[in-house]
From TrEMBL:
NCBIfam families assigned to the protein according to its UniProt record, in alphabetical order: thioredoxin
Thioredoxin domain location: 1-103
InterPro entries per the UniProt record, alphabetical: Thioredoxin, Thioredoxin-like_sf, Thioredoxin_CS, Thioredoxin_domain
Source species of the chain: Treponema porcinum
UniProt protein name: Thioredoxin
GO biological process: cell redox homeostasis
Site (Contributes to redox potential value): G32, P33
PROSITE patterns: THIOREDOXIN_1, THIOREDOXIN_2
Residues under site feature: Deprotonates C-terminal active site Cys: D25
Cellular component GO terms, alphabetical: cytosol
Native organism taxonomy: Bacteria, Pseudomonadati, Spirochaetota, Spirochaetia, Spirochaetales
Similarity comment: Belongs to the thioredoxin family.
Length: 103
């Protein structure tokens, strides 16, 4: 499953109402660490169809970044049943990202 770009307009349906765990990558195009994490997220999305992977561009979606207290990027937020269950900032290894979803 490909990584889905989400916005304030589709966040409710794509993330909060999703019936599987969702990892949301809050990122920006100018962010070097984000560019390091992004390919890992894309790989995981292809390898683990049991989860959903989404990306939020913080420059374009300021309201979403503010709502989820994204103060630094990359910022990975895991949602289950519409609730935040974990949130980490900074770069992570692929295995660490997957572990966030399995918690």
């Amino acid at each position: 499953m490909a990584t889905k770009e989400v916005t304030i307009e589709n966040f409710q349906s794509e993330v909060l109402e999703c019936n599987v765990p969702v990892l949301v990558d809050f990122w920006a195009s100018w962010c070097g660490p984000c560019r390091m994490v992004s390919p890992l997220i894309d790989e995981l999305s292809e390898e683990h169809p049991e989860y959903k992977f989404a990306k939020v561009n913080v420059d374009e979606q300021i309201a979403l970044a503010n709502k989820y207290n994204v103060m630094s990027i990359p910022n990975l937020v895991v949602f289950k049943n519409g609730e935040v269950v974990s949130q980490v900032a900074g770069t992570r290894q692929k295995e660490e990202i997957l572990e966030l979803l399995k918690k």
